[in-house]
Specification:
30% of the residues are buried. This protein is an all-alpha fold. Helix 5 packs parallel to helix 7 and helix 10 packs antiparallel against helix 11. It has 11 helices and no strands.
Length: 209
Amino acid sequence: WDKRRILDVYQKQIDLEWAAKDLEYKNDSVRICAAVVVFRSDKSAKAREILGDALEKRGLEWWTGTAVEALLAEGSPESRRHVARLFAYKDLHLQQTLLVTPVFRGNVMRKCAEAGMIGPYRYYLKQLDNNELVPPGPGNPEPGKLTWSELHVAEIWREFGSGNAAVKEITSKFRTNAERLPEMKKWLQGRIAELDGAEKQTKSGLNPR
């Protein structure tokens, strides 16, 4: 079975009481499925912790999009903190090549950005300085012809920022991803500065001198 199909079936057929027991199950996949069901129902701190741990330790997998959606839908600062643990996964950039794997990292990143999180922009900005070559496929250690920075430029205009007017303008103005890269960097830096400024202003408002 497709593993995402397993999650769909689990959510439809397992009741809340049984899912709560599965939070203690030894198998990681079962615990993650249970945590999604339980968290959506009663916002359990334990379920939230399981999802945050999985995001940080496993990154992008078949359950990631559903877990991120559940946490962001709840919307508390604590849930957003656990979503942000995804960006701490050290091999996040290696989990998608645009060549051989399902395309969903950009979608997950976009959901985080739409929720006002700064993490996705910082992730992409860092990767636009990554000039190592992308392997052509799984199990093939030989370097390909595309750099990780070029791959992430493509991911920005194809998925992450596909609906953004500035990204569309950059994409139409420049022919190759290598040519688009400097302008994409400027766009990311601008968004980071904007979000960082808004965050500082909010904190200042909450803690007036």
